[in-house]
């Protein structure tokens, strides 16, 4: 192992320290031998390299494997329907004969009820309230299972007020004011009848308020006479109520 000489110029000899008066004197450099190793230093510890390995998934497992196809004989059997299947499809009917007959009967009853209702309204417009009462009564008695039979009850109540019992007519109107609540004609007719025949001003005012809020035309006597074809007696009652006479 060799050694090299290195000069350290900042170190002064001990004689210069004792001589404080001679600061400008030159000091001789002292040679210090520093050993220099020619071989590189070896690390004290060894680093270990850890290798992490992942299991490899075969590519064949990532591919979709179709289900096995049926045999030729089974596929041929499934694709070719038998004559029994053809006959079953030909004889299948979604509606039974009983249901078809019931539907035809119901349609016929609806047509008959509508025809009677229209006939009653036609007679009412002509002023024949006796005949109109008969047609309206038929609809109410024979076809009360239909919802539109309530409108026949309104016509029947108006006809009853003219040619029949006024108490029965008012009772019919009161019933219809509940079942047909919001139908302005029945509320207006009930208001007129309550005021004239029952002298119930407060109840009449309530019914007439409902009617006019729904249809303001009922304040016009010509409307109920010419458009709604009210009987003369009910038109007169409405006139008395409006004028409070």
UniProtKB/TrEMBL annotation:
The protein's matches in Pfam families, at most eight in alphabetical order, are given as: TPR_19 (PF14559)
**What is the top-level taxon of the source organism?**
Eukaryota
Record's protein name? Uncharacterized protein
Provenance organism: Lithocarpus litseifolius
């Amino acid at each position: 192992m060799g050694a090299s000489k290195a000069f350290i110029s900042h170190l002064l000899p001990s004689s210069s320290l004792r001589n404080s008066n001679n600061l400008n004197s030159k000091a001789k450099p002292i040679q210090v031998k520093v050993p220099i190793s020619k071989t590189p230093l070896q690390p004290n510890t060894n680093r270990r390299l850890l290798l992490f390995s992942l299991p490899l998934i075969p590519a064949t497992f990532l591919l979709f494997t179709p289900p096995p196809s049926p045999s030729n004989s089974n596929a041929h059997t499934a694709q070719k329907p038998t004559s029994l299947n053809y006959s079953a499809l030909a004889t299948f009917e979604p509606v039974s004969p009983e249901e078809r007959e019931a539907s035809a009967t119901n349609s016929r009853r609806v047509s008959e009820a509508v025809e009677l209702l229209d006939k009653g309204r036609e007679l009412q417009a002509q002023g024949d309230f006796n005949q109109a009462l008969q047609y309206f009564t038929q609809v109410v008695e024979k076809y009360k299972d239909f919802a539109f039979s309530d409108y026949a009850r309104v016509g029947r109540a108006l006809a009853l007020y003219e040619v029949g019992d006024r108490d029965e007519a008012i009772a019919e109107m009161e019933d219809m004011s509940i079942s047909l609540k919001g139908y302005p004609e029945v509320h207006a007719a009930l208001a007129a009848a309550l005021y004239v025949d029952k002298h119930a001003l407060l109840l009449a005012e309530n019914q007439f308020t409902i009617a006019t809020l729904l249809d303001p035309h009922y304040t016009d006597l010509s409307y109920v006479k010419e458009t709604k074809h009210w009987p003369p007696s009910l038109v007169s009652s409405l006139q008395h109520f409006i004028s409070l006479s």
